């Protein structure tokens, strides 16, 4: 496996660290995934290939949203955001 593949796997498993987010202010990444730990409503989620209206959906606890996430904002709930490196 290439070094890039290994690095991608390591980041997807939390190698880059993570942070608890409970504040409703904008949180900037990059992140490789967000896991909800309480029912959560997002005001916004930005990143490559991410679309849709998030303000009307409440994501149940225990759901992981993977992807190249550059920033997000919650309006309610709690999440764990996994740090990563996003290369285009």
Give the secondary structure arrangement, pairings included:
Layout: H1 3-12, E1 18-21, E2 27-36, E3 40-47, E4 58-59, E5 64-76, E6 79-83
Antiparallel strand pairs: 1-6, 2-5, 2-6, 3-4, 3-5
Short description:
The protein has 88 residues and is mainly beta.
Descriptive key words:
single chain, 88 residues, mainly beta, six-stranded antiparallel β-sheet
Task: Characterize the structure shown.
The chain is mostly beta strands and 88 residues long. 11% of the residues lie in helices and 48% in strands. It has one helix at residues 3-12; strands at residues 18-21, 27-36, 40-47, 58-59, 64-76, 79-83. The longest helix is centred in the first third of the chain and has 10 residues, at 3-12. It is globular. The mean pLDDT is 86.
Shape descriptor? globular
Mean model confidence by pLDDT: 86
Determine the structural class based on helices, strands and strand pairing.
mainly beta
SSE pattern, N- to C-terminal? HEEEEEE
Question: How many strands appear in the DSSP assignment?
Answer: 6
Instruction: Report the C-alpha radius of gyration, rounded.
Output: 13 Å
State the distance separating the first and last CA atoms: 20 Å
Main sheet overview:
6 strands, antiparallel
Binned, the helix content reads: 10-25%
- Strands ordered across the widest β-sheet: 1-6-2-5-3-4
Number of helices, where a helix is a run of at least 4 consecutive DSSP H or I residues: 1
Percent in strands: over 45%
Low-confidence stretches: none
């Amino acid at each position: 496996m290439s070094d890039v593949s290994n690095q991608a796997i390591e980041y997807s498993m939390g190698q880059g660290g993570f942070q608890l987010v409970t504040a409703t202010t904008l949180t900037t990444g990059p992140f490789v995934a967000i896991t909800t730990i309480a029912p959560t409503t997002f005001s916004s989620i930005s990143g490559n290939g991410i679309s849709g209206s998030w303000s009307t959906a409440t994501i149940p606890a225990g759901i992981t949203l993977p992807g190249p996430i550059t920033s997000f904002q919650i309006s309610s709930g709690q999440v764990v955001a996994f740090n990563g490196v996003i290369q285009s």
